[in-house]
Amino acid sequence: MGLVCTSVSCTHEVPPNTPHLQESAKGEPKTTDQELRKPASVAEAAKAIDLSTFPILPNVLAIHARSVARLEYVVGLKSFDVRSEYEFQRRNLLERQWQELPDGDGQFTRSGFHLYVTVQMHDERGKAVVKLQNNGNVNTSKLPVPGDAKYIKTAYNVADSEATTNVNETRESVRALLIEQGWQPYGTRGDVMDMKKNAVLLTASVASLRQPGLTRIAYWTTQMPADLPVPPNSESILYQSDENHLELVAAGSVDEITSYYKTALGSSEWNSTTERPIHEDQQFILLFRNPAKDMLRLGMSERTKERTRVTLKYKSFAEIDEHDRKR
């Protein structure tokens, strides 16, 4: 019932022991979703659900995330059971025309979007953690895989395939196929590659299996609360989805990177609050706000005349308001 946190959005890793799909009489896994969908923008995701305005329980102790795509907070428990706290989320989703997947363990869908809900006991007695994560609208089972790969299953929005080529060859093939379909490289972590298209983060894991000669390909997605662009020819890209924080090393000076982000973000109605960056704590800082009063903080420190270290952090208006309220 989603009472234990096993979501990829919580750990940013493939959840272990995910259940198999129902199998056909011949033992072949089947998937009911055959639709190809364009990765959603922030506005498109908000039409399906805006988690920054989703109802929250009255006994909230702390709010850790409250954006279009993610809601996480701590509540005080009236008993040693979290079922009523989970039922609150379920009831509000059903009222908003979300469908609960059969035996879905906290999984809900609407208009192609996949939402995962968990309510779990906090480390501290008498508390629970509530998490809702929009995983986006991409049909992960329809993403491209190398020609030798065989589709295995989709569970918890994670699409599994197996290839017979070695890990390195499979990883290069997967990367090329995704780029060909318009996915932008968004950093690597070990055997995991992050890619972005519109405001959807795609994570591709390519790793060897215990069975010799087989390589596992796993795809899962996360809806981003803001579309954070990456300048061309950037290096050392790292996106932290839980923090909505992007860091990279960009080609160009502080002035060039400032110009890039003003143009790139301006197309999405983000406007800088000052004409030029402010120098603060050995960084050049430029703030952006959008009509929803969300905020982006662009930090830049010039390493050389050709390279600039960049950080870009997003905060929703609801998160800013919560921070100001606690001060």
List its salient traits.
327 residues, alpha+beta, TATA-Binding Protein, 3 domains, seven-stranded antiparallel beta sheet, six-stranded antiparallel beta sheet, 6 helices, 19 strands, globular, disordered N terminus
Q: How is this structure best described in words?
A:
By secondary structure, the chain is an alpha+beta fold. It has 3 domains: 8-134, no CATH class; 140-223, TATA-Binding Protein (2-Layer Sandwich); 235-326, TATA-Binding Protein (2-Layer Sandwich), CATH 3.30.310. The chain is built from 6 helices and 19 strands. The strands form 3 sheets. Strands 13, 14, 15, 16, 17, 18 and 19 form a 7-stranded antiparallel β-sheet that branches. It has a 6-stranded antiparallel β-sheet with strand order 1-2-6-5-4-3. It is globular. The protein starts with 7 loop residues before the first helix and ends with a helix. Residues 23-36 have a biased composition (Basic and acidic residues). Residues 14-36 are annotated as: Disordered.
Radius of gyration: 21 Å
Q: Can you count the beta strands?
A: 19
Distance between the termini: 36 Å
Give average pLDDT, whole number: 89
Structural category = alpha+beta
State the assembly state of the protein chains.
Answer: single chain
Counting DSSP H or I runs of 4 or more residues, the number of helices is: 6
| Main β sheet profile | 7 strands, antiparallel
The proportion of strand residues reads 35-45%
Low-confidence stretches: 1-31
Order of helices and strands: HHEEHEEEEEEHEEEEEEHEEEEEH
* Overall shape: globular
Number of domains: 3
Helix content: 10-25%
